Automatic annotation (TrEMBL), chain A:
Keywords carried by this UniProt record: Oxidoreductase
A Pfam family of this chain: FAD_binding_5
Residue ranges crossing the lipid bilayer per the database entry: none
Lineage of source species: Bacteria, Bacillati, Actinomycetota, Actinomycetes, Kitasatosporales
Signal peptide location: none
Protein name: Xanthine dehydrogenase YagS FAD-binding subunit
SUPFAM superfamilies referenced in this protein's UniProt entry, alphabetically: CO dehydrogenase flavoprotein C-terminal domain-like, FAD-binding/transporter-associated domain-like
Residue ranges constituting the FAD-binding PCMH-type domain according to the UniProt record: 1-222
PANTHER family the record matches: OXIDOREDUCTASE, XANTHINE DEHYDROGENASE SUBUNIT C-RELATED
Entry GO MF terms: FAD binding; oxidoreductase activity
InterPro entries, sorted: CO_DH_flav_C, CO_DH_flav_C_dom_sf, Diverse_Substr_Oxidored, FAD-bd_PCMH, FAD-bd_PCMH-like_sf, FAD-bd_PCMH_sub1, FAD-bd_PCMH_sub2, Mopterin_DH_FAD-bd
SMART domains per UniProt: CO_deh_flav_C (SM01092)
Source organism (scientific name): Actinacidiphila paucisporea
From TrEMBL, chain B:
InterPro entries reported for this sequence: Ald_Oxase/Xan_DH_a/b (IPR000674), Ald_Oxase/Xan_DH_a/b_sf (IPR036856), Ald_Oxase/xanthine_DH-like (IPR016208), AldOxase/xan_DH_MoCoBD1 (IPR008274), AldOxase/xan_DH_MoCoBD2 (IPR046867), AldOxase/xan_DH_Mopterin-bd_sf (IPR037165)
SMART domains associated with the record: Ald_Xan_dh_C
Name under which the protein is recorded: Xanthine dehydrogenase, molybdenum binding subunit apoprotein
Entry annotated with the keyword Signal: no
Matching PANTHER family: ALDEHYDE OXIDASE 1-RELATED, XANTHINE DEHYDROGENASE
Entry-linked Gene3D superfamilies: Aldehyde oxidase/xanthine dehydrogenase, a/b hammerhead, Aldehyde oxidase/xanthine dehydrogenase, molybdopterin binding domain
Organism whose genome encodes this protein: Actinacidiphila paucisporea
């Protein structure tokens, strides 16, 4: 790995200041993704600013009934937190379906949100990748596509965002709290990650020097139950082929309210707005669920190596919504 | 002498002795190659080709050499000239030619491993790149018949008239199956610590055979065999990847040559394991079966295709197990190979049998289905009286008993032969069976020394290997019984070329070969020095020839049963239960043996459901070259795996009556799982792995 300097930040302002005067500096959280990238040469920063000692490791209730999760809360702590388990089971489930126990003990909330695609070409500096080296080409277009996008991709990049946690946060309408050189701002999670377009090198709207200090989780409306369902190639320690985060409120057999986000299918957690619209007011039946899934996936543009994800996403969405209604199949 | 003329009564043999090296391993004090404490080590990192075919036109090492801490940069310009031993895989840095992507084209030696790796990334290479060809397909027009296939077997065999018998058969199966490319990935990658002193070379190497490394490395450097010392007391898994020297050990020795007197440490990264440590070739297998309505085979034909590299031939013996399994008067097997711009394939646990028994045993399931005969019964009906192709009697063959016992254990009577008939807890449930086979290989050329110590103690020395398999323990048990003393009186010494030569730990032959030498040495000790030898008395024994191998066909057999559960909507596959029953001669240590068999079955499960090296033909390399993307079964994927064995007394195989158990556990597992998947879903998966997309309707 390329030699680098290391500094430990004592407070948020100092951390932001260290980055804002050095284009080669990056924040170091749990390091579960960044340290791999240092070894692989995918990231070659000149300075690591360690933010794990910042006072951002708390989970606290907000006056409006929501919960604020600090940016350096460890994934395992967040998953096990009683408040999270009780109010946002979808988030706890998503976290526990990700990575391994050892990785979750290290990984931070902010880092999870900012983790980079696991596209094999992005992680191999000997191959072309527009995300890693803009303009170099996309090896995945003719290569290994099993973990790649079916929605919202571009001719420049078909990578997916690998996070489970972020998919759950998308369905929870989380708001990302950011502090940067120009002060603080709040970014709704749905606007935080980008689609690749012709600038796949930018995963998010975050600017250099901006630090994720917290994620605010609004309370789920009364009557909504939530669930995270991850489908993958092995039972543990694999990224999602498709995942579904859903929250559902059924009254008198009719969908009163619903939120759906898909993981493993796009460059960002994919909020299935079209499926949600189809479902609101519809009977809570397999037929409705299937129609809604098909409506959402009508925009899908799979490639040869991941065409199976379209029926997989459809079927997984139907099964997840059905499970939320408490019914058994058939 | 014949090694089977006298047998000893087992006492320690057959008991579940705890691993003698267990305490050292769980407390972290067992030293592996890379962990050898050496003075002031330097560290090596390999530079690899980034094109799949071509010539290096320039290699700029200036930036790498300028990095503080860099001691030397090796390229084909300054590398020591090696003698040509005819093995192009080991001719490291001897020319500007690139034969596959990932081939070693240089190395950086530095004071830290991080510095070496960083400097290696600064080496700039330009190539005269030529179009590469890496795709294995059955319709290639350049497939060729190798002279022999791995193991020294004939490339093709034929008896009777297969085509006529197929044409006349009441029921036929004609299907093509494929297995994926797989990479041996022991926890411990290939590692070497190399040091030159006084013109001699010492290698602490992670290897399946210290003497094998010595005998192949010495001539490269124009050394006498005795001038190379190889040490390897503990090995963190091999699975064949350490069964023959690959390029990295040569690079390490070269690098150390540039810093004489200073040891050089070298470990491959996980990614590098996917191009420099061998792998199991993908295979395409066309299997044709012709039978009467009761499933009795008249014709059996297997045509297997595999790949090899441009620089070295390795021809997987995929069709060989079909020469032994079932009776059929008309039969043929063929092997064809494509020579491609790919890394060098090599041994991976049960080469030949492991991939070959996928197509063959799924085809038997298809035949059972077509005839309406129970798959267990079908195999019993086709049991041969003698080895079908050689005509030799079997020294022992208990496949039928394994099938019956396995069927009893898994509850085979619950199986509904109609696919999709069982639906439980939201999953489609099925059962499947497949047979296992592995030859009893006789490897001559090992010797062992027994030395009498004080107080009735003995030191037994042999340059054997323990890959984590239990050699330390099992060989001690054999020595104790051969000397007729308690195991506490035996001190075993292995894993070092200072000890007598031993054959490589491969082909499930280790205990058979080394144990035979140990028994012979013990016998000599008693013959020469009696029951109370003086301290310092020494006797040496050899693994000689076993004439019985000319008179008998020698194989271990087994039967594997799988229960599978498939999600009807997502296609997710789980295997809650695997049952394996084996007939593999005498079991030396039931505890380590069970671990070996369960380990093999787990690896077979992993092959069935997960493993696949995705070779990107555009880029020219394995795309998913790390453990996040190359999926190996996790604990969560492995539920109940039950391995057991039948008591089998085979007087012909060797003095211990052992057949070898390192590989048979992986043979047939994937077929059993695929057959269970068909029973559960009605979907016949003929191409591994059995992933969820294969069960999805569009």
């Amino acid at each position: 790995m390329k030699p680098f300097d290391y500094r430990r930040a004592d407070d948020v302002a100092a951390a932001v200041a260290l980055l804002s005067r050095d284009r080669e500096a990056v924040f170091l959280g749990g390091g579960t993704n960044l340290v791999d990238h240092l070894r692989l040469g995918v990231a070659t920063p000149g300075l690591l600013v360690d933010i794990t000692r910042l006072p951002l490791d708390r989970i606290e209730e907000l006056p409006d009934g929501g919960v604020r999760v600090g940016g350096t809360v460890r994934n395992s702590d967040l998953a096990a937190d009683p408040l999270i388990r009780e109010r946002y089971p979808v988030l706890s489930q998503a976290l526990l379906s990700g990575a391994s126990g050892q990785l979750r003990n290290l990984a931070t909330t902010g880092g999870n949100l900012l983790q980079r695609t696991r596209c094999v070409y992005f992680q191999d500096v000997t191959t072309a990748c527009n995300k890693r080296v803009p303009g170099s080409g996309c090896s995945a277009l003719e290569g290994y596509q099993r973990y790649h996008a079916i929605l919202g991709a571009s001719p420049d990049c078909i990578a997916t965002h690998p996070s489970d946690m972020a998919v759950a946060m998308a369905v929870l309408d989380a708001v990302v709290q950011v502090t940067g050189p120009d002060g603080e701002r709040a970014v709704p999670l749905g606007d935080f990650h980008r689609l690749p377009g012709d600038e796949p090198q930018h995963d998010t709207v975050l600017r250099h020097g901006e630090l994720v200090t917290a994620m605010d989780l609004p309370a789920l409306p009364d009557g909504m139950t939530s669930l995270y369902r991850k489908v993958r190639d092995r039972a543990s320690y694999a990224f999602a082929l498709v995942s579904v985060a859903a929250a559902l409120d059924v009254r008198d057999g009719v969908v009163a309210d619903v939120r759906i986000a898909l993981g493993g299918v796009a460059h960002k957690p994919w909020r299935a707005a079209r499926a949600e619209r189809e479902l609101r007011g519809a009977p809570a039946t397999d037929d409705s669920f299937r129609r809604a899934a098909e409506a959402e996936l009508s925009a899908a543009q799979p490639v040869a190596g991941n065409a199976f994800k379209v029926p997989l996403a459809r079927n997984t969405l139907v099964a997840t919504l059905r499970e939320l209604t408490g019914r058994t199949p058939r | 002498m014949t090694t089977t003329d006298r047998r000893f009564p087992p006492r320690a043999v057959g008991t579940p002795l705890d691993r003698l090296d267990g305490h050292a391993k769980v407390t972290g004090t067992a030293r592996y190659a890379y962990e050898q404490p050496v003075d002031a080590p330097a560290y090596l990192h390999a530079v690899q080709a980034t094109v799949a075919r071509g010539r290096i036109t320039a290699i700029d090492t200036e930036a790498a050499e300028a990095v503080p801490g860099v001691l030397a940069v090796l390229t084909h310009h300054n590398a020591p000239r090696l003698a040509d031993t005819g093995d192009a895989e080991l001719a490291v840095l001897q020319s500007d030619a690139v034969a596959f992507r990932g081939q070693i084209i240089g190395g950086v030696v530095a004071t830290t491993s991080e510095t070496a790796r960083y400097a290696a990334s600064l080496v700039r290479t330009t190539y005269d790149e030529q179009p590469h060809d890496t795709g294995l397909r059955a319709d290639r027009d350049d497939l060729y018949a190798p002279e022999k296939v791995n193991g020294g077997y004939a490339t093709d065999t034929a008896q009777g008239d297969v085509e006529a018998a197929l044409a006349a058969a009441a029921v036929t199966v004609d299907r093509t199956y494929s297995t994926a490319m797989y990479h041996n990935n022991p926890m411990e990658p290939l590692t070497t610590v190399a040091c030159w002193a006084d013109g001699e070379l010492t290698l602490h190497d992670s290897t399946q055979g210290v003497h094998m490394v010595r005998s192949q490395v010495a001539p490269l450097f124009r050394l006498e065999t005795e001038q190379v010392h190889v040490v390897s007391p503990h090995v963190g898994g091999g699975f064949g990847s350490k069964g023959t020297p690959h390029a990295p050990v040569v690079l390490a020795a070269m690098a150390a040559h540039l810093v004489p007197g200073r040891p050089v440490k070298f470990a491959l990264t996980r990614q590098q394991m996917f191009s420099l440590a061998g792998y199991r070739t993908p295979t395409v297998q066309r299997v044709r079966l012709g039978a009467d309505r009761d499933g009795r085979l008249a014709a059996l034909s297997v045509d297997a295709i595999s790949q090899t590299s441009r620089i070295k031939e390795f021809a997987e013996q995929t069709a060989v197990p079909s020469r032994t399994m079932y009776a059929a008067p008309h039969r043929r097997t063929t092997h064809r190979v494509a020579r491609l711009d790919v890394p060098v394939p090599s041994w991976m646990r049960a080469p030949g049998e492991c991939p070959g028994m996928f197509g063959a045993e799924v085809a038997m399931d298809e035949l059972a289905d077509a005839c309406g005969v129970d798959p267990v019964e079908l195999r019993v009906r086709n049991e041969p009286e003698t080895d079908p192709e050689s005509g030799l009697p079997f020294s022992s063959r208990n496949l039928v008993a394994c099938l019956r016992e396995g069927a009893r254990r898994i509850g085979w009577e619950r199986r509904d032969p109609t696919p999709r008939a069982r639906y439980e807890e939201g999953r489609l449930v099925g059962l499947g069976v497949a047979a296992s086979v592995y030859p009893v290989l006789w490897m001559p050329g090992s010797s062992a020394t027994v030395r009498a110590g004080a107080d009735g103690r003995y030191t037994v020395s042999i340059g054997a290997a323990d890959l984590g398999t239990g050699t330390w323990t099992a060989l001690t048990q054999i020595a104790a019984d051969a000397l007729d003393v308690p195991v506490e009186r035996v001190e075993l010494r292995i894993g070092d070329t200072v000890f007598p030569p031993a054959s490589v730990a491969g082909g499930s032959s280790g205990i058979t070969a080394w144990g035979s030498a140990v028994v012979h040495a013990a016998r000599r000790m008693r013959e020469s020095f009696g029951e109370s030898p003086h301290e310092g008395a020494e006797a040496t024994g050899e693994t000689g020839d076993n004439p019985a191998t000319e008179r008998f066909a020698m194989y271990a057999f087994g039967a594997q049963f799988a229960e599978i559960r498939v999600h009807p909507e997502t296609g997710e596959v789980r295997v809650p239960r695997l049952v394996g029953v084996f007939a593999a001669g005498r079991i030396v240590n039931p505890k380590t043996a069970r671990s070996q068999l369960i380990g093999g079955m787990t690896m077979g499960l992993s092959m069935a459901l997960h493993e696949q090296s995705y070779f990107d033909d555009h880029v020219g390399q394995v795309a998913n070259h790390d453990f996040a993307e190359y999926h190996i079964a996790t604990n969560a994927d492995v539920d109940r795996i039950e391995a057991s064995w039948l008591d089998e007394d085979d007087p012909h195989v060797n003095p211990m009556g052992t057949k070898g158990i390192g590989e048979i556990g992986i043979v047939g597992t994937a077929a059993a799982v695929a057959n269970a998947a068909y029973n559960a879903t009605g979907v016949r998966v003929r191409d591994l792995p059995i992933t969820l997309d294969k069960f999805l309707d569009s």
